[in-house]
Design a protein that fits this description.
three-stranded antiparallel beta sheet, globular, 3 strands, DUF1272 domain-containing protein, about 70 residues, DUF1272, 2 helices, alpha+beta
Amino acid sequence: MLEMRPDCERCGTDLPANAGGAFICSFECTFCAECADAVDERCPNCGGELLDRPTRSGKALAANPASTERKFKH
């Protein structure tokens, strides 16, 4: 199951699990659309391809909440 990280690792933008606009690699490194574009859709951590992260909402989100651990390092 996806961790659904709450923020962009590059700029810190909030990325709610129930909204689009997040991009992830196979290791779940998470970036906003602007940062994904800035790195040419390649994860700067592992070099993997960044793809649209699916959303999670309603009962699925209630039963399986998103992570609250932020990854952005100031």
